[in-house]
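Budget justification aside, the reviewers requested a transparent look at the raw inputs and outputs of the sequence design task funded under Objective 1. We therefore reproduce one unedited record. The lines immediately below are the structure tokens for a 202-residue chain.
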């Protein structure tokens, strides 16, 4: 029987399969739409709880077409829930990564997030809490250092990540350690990753 989210009063999709992967629980859904709604409900409920508990929270977001079902479900939940609207206004939003491109370039992740997620949320977010990563402005290493400090100042409390076709997580390629100290790194994209990005951003 599908559960009704106690915070947002919305019925959550039921996963087809759930299995452990290390310390994680992996849930498989029938469709991207159901996966997006389940993810949006989980993030939103925890976001509302953290804001009630601490006064504010932070959310670090992936930027990719594969996240569109989440963006759409999350914006729909926000339109229905005053609790989530309030929490969005108390949330610091961060990216994981971006290209050395200007923010107005259609392949930049700032462009994607602005148009696909933050546009529909414009009634509720606090613009001073939208923290875009801008490695193209000035020295990229200094931009990474400043962004790391800002991210660690505010969290991160919540993360929405995606896994790519070759197993990359954000721009962390397979084989890059993810259990060290927090830092920004420059990566060399492999052919499979480049092909996926070109399909996403032709």
């Amino acid at each position: 029987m599908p559960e009704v989210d106690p915070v947002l009063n919305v019925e959550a999709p039921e996963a087809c399969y759930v299995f452990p992967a290390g310390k994680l629980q992996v849930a498989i859904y029938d469709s991207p739409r159901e996966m997006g709604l389940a993810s949006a409900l989980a993030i939103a409920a925890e976001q509302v709880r953290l804001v009630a508990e601490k006064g504010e929270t932070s959310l670090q977001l992936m930027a990719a077409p594969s996240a569109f079902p989440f963006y759409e479900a999350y914006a729909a939940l926000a339109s229905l829930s005053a609790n989530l609207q309030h929490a969005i206004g108390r949330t610091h939003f961060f990216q994981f990564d971006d290209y050395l491109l200007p923010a107005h370039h259609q392949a930049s992740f700032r462009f994607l997030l602005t148009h696909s997620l933050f546009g529909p949320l414009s009634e509720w977010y606090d613009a001073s809490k939208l923290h875009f990563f801008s490695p193209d402005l000035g020295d990229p290493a200094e931009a990474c250092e400043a962004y790391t400090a800002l991210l660690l100042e505010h969290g991160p409390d919540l993360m929405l990540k995606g896994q790519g076709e070759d197993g990359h997580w954000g721009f962390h390629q397979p084989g890059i350690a993810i259990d060290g100290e927090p830092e920004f790194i420059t990566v060399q994209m492999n052919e499979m990753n480049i092909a996926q990005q070109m399909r996403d951003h032709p």
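The mean pLDDT is 87. The chain has one domain: 56-200. Computational costs for records of this kind are itemized in the attached budget.
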